[in-house]
Structures are given as C-alpha cells and as structure tokens.
Amino acid sequence: MRTSVARRSRIRASRMLGFHPARTIFVGFLATGLIGTFLLMLPIARVGEGGATPLEAVFTAVSALCVTGLITVDTPTHWTGFGHTVILLLIQVGGFGVMTFASVVGIAVLRRLSYRSTLTTATEAKSLGLDEVRSLVFGIVRISLAVEAVVAAVLTVWFMIRYGKPLGEAVWIGVFHAVSSFNNAGFSLFSDNMISYVADPVVGLSMCAAIILGGLGFPVIIQLRKHVRNPRLWTMNTRLVLSGTALLIIAGTIFITALEWSNPRTFGGLDWPAKLLAGFFQSVQTRTAGFNSIDIGAMESATWLGMDVLMFIGGGPAGTAGGIKITTFAVLLFIILSEIRGEGAVNIFGKRLSRAVHRQAISVALLAVAVVVISTLALILMTDFSLDRVLFEVISAFATVGLSTGITAQLPAAGQLILVALMFIGRVGPITFASALALRGRGRTYELPKERPIIG
C-alpha cells in the first residue's frame, strides 16, 4: 500500500513538473555518449597522426558508456593513455548510471538534490521511495569504489609479483580491469583480452567476483549489506536474483565446459583445472561482462546458442548488468508454471506477485525479442555472415555483454550503427526507451468494454 501511494505521488509530481523521467534518462545517456564521442575524436586520444573516425569514436564511446565491451579497433594499440582514461570514465559513469552520477555531482556542488533530480534518479535506480534516493546514491558510490579498490589492489600486486610488471603499469592494469569488471564492461588493455590468463586463477576469479557483484544489482548488494545474516528479511527481488544468478552460473559452467571440453581450438589444449576455470570464467561473462579467456569465434555453434540464452537473460536489475534481467525471466517462468497448474495467482517465495509486474515482464520480454529479431534480420540482409554469428553479435550488443565471434569490426558502417543502437537500447532498457519515445503523455481516464479472445 505504501509503495503504491509513493508511486502515485511520484507520477503526479512528475506531471506537475512537466517532464518524463524516462525521457530525461534517455537524453542524459545520449548527451554523455556524444561528449565521449567528441573526446575520442580528438587527436590526443588516438595513437598516430590525426583523430579517430566518427564511427570508431561513437562505437567505442557508446560501448563504454553502455558497459558493453564490443570493439571495432584494438583498445590497447589504437587509443592513447588519454583515450583509455576517457573509456574508463565512460565505463564508470555508465555503471553508476548517468542520472546517479549527475546526482552525485549535484550533491557535491550544490549540497542538495533537487526534487526533479530525485524523481529521475529514483526511476533510473528502480528506487521505490523518494526519501531513500540520497542514501541510495551514496550507497552505490561507496559499494562501487570499495569493490573496485579491492579488486584493483589484488590485480596490481599479482601483476607485479607474478608477471614482473612495474608498479605504475601494474596499478593502471589493476584499476582499469577492476572498473571494467565490476561495471560488467569487458574492455581490456590486452589485445587478446584475457586469453593469456586463461589458466590464472587469481586473475580469473578476482575479476569474476567483481563481475558477479556488479551483476547482482545495487538494491540486492545494499540489502545484503544490511541483512546478510537474516534471509527472512530479503525481498522477493533479492531472493530471485541470488537464486537465479547461482543457478545460471552453475548451469552455464557445466554447459560450456561439456561442449568445449574436447574442442582443440578452445579447451582441448588445456589441463582439466584450466578447463574448469575457463568454463566458469566464460559462464560468468555471459552475465553481460564480455571478457574472454578463449577464442569465442572458435567455439561450437551449439555453445553459442546456449550462451545466447544466458546473455539474453542477463543479470540483476538496477545494476551494471544488461539483458532482460533475471527477475523478468523468473517472473515469466512462474507465470507459465501458475498457468499450467491452473492457479489464479502467481505466488513466489510465499508472496503473491502483483499483476502489474506480469504486464511489465511480458512487455520487456516481447520488446526485447522484437528488437533482437529485427536487428538480426537487418544484419543478415546486409552481410554474408551466418545466422548463428549474427544472432550472437546482436544479443551480445543488446544485452550489453561484449562477447564477439569476431565479426563486429567486419560489419559495414550501417551494421555497426545498428549495434550502437542496440547497446544504447539495452543499457537504458526497452521500457525506458519506448517510454521516452511514446507520444502519449498521460493515461486514459476511462476503460473500454472487456472481451476475451481465444488463447492457444
């Protein structure tokens, strides 16, 4: 009851202020992407003479801002230290959320958070209470920086001790990959991504830990910090995300390892501990992280299909992960099970699911499927690549994963722009994107006569 009242008050307030939070989020991401594109086009951002082309700059900027990791140029050799810094900042801003980051800056400069900013930040962070936004914003910042600092320290020390890197280089490698990992970005300072470290458990597991935490979503992390020892106080969202994450990572590890175990181009040349580590690492990456410790383009087609499903589902809501989200998939699964059983209500973990959530989950899933199908068809018509490769690339872009079969840089300019649009839509969310473009400003004040078509 309290939640619905707060939600109605938020809607009334947004109408009185004459703006739509979804449009503000849309414009915020768009403006930040344009700024990043401009900075990457500067000659100082690119190795060699002259600046990057507009397509190279916009693709990289959007991929970093949308924490995807797809690239059309080699990150370590194409961009200078300035370019790498711009990419890192875009990743951090994209992981925080543009509106959340803007709120942090606003609070730091003005020492207050305007009501309009509060509404928009609440929408982006999926916060239910306006009075909680300020603490939520600072909680997101503290958690992000703390996890990134720990992982950066581990990687820095390890690269110094194990690989003999100088202190400055080791620190930069540690910080860059810690930020990229926690924000599920997938950008790497190594030309082969993480293939050289496929059998290194310290590098692999520390990065996976950051990726998993970032993929849980900030609401889940904040609640675990408060009630980690008292599961009875966990919300339905937290329970769904934790159980779904564990099941999908385990299932993905078994699936990928089993199918690639004897593939000479991927796991075949590894010993069994390295195979298990590689399988676990790649399973975690499908949760929208995008690093790869083996050649994705050399994997079996059946493995790609399974990874398509995992990427499409994604991670937890209101975090750094993409996809339709674990909660959406879980809600759809429970709706189907309840319908099969003939139950009138959908019950999850001893609680009844709101019917409004039914509509939201179905809308998100169908919009996502439509976007993926249309984009896949468009790329197939303009290229000669096979369906399995194109579908993998499209889902990777839409789910802001960043894994690639190796065809991204070979796509024509129009195809790369399609991936740019997919990354943008995937990051802001299908519903937010559609709401930002909607012409209707208010709902109907009346209801039409009810009728039921035959289903199935």
Task: Quickly describe the structure.
The chain has one domain (2-437). Helices cover 64% and strands 1% of the residues. It contains 19 helices and 2 strands.
Radius of gyration, CA atoms, in whole angstroms: 22 Å
The string of secondary-structure elements, in order, is HHHHHHHHHHHHHHHEEHHHH
Largest sheet features: 2 strands, antiparallel
Question: What share of residues is helical?
Answer: 55-70%
Indicate how many domains the architecture comprises. Answer: 1
Number of strands: 2
Q: How many helix segments?
A: 19
Q: Alpha-carbon distance between the termini? A: 35 Å
Label the overall shape.
Answer: globular
The proportion of residues in beta strands is under 5%
**What structural class do helix, strand and pairing data support?**
mainly alpha
Q: Could you tell me the mean pLDDT?
A: 86
Please state how the strands of the largest beta sheet are arranged side by side.
1-2
Which blocks of ≥5 consecutive residues have pLDDT under 50?
13-18, 103-111
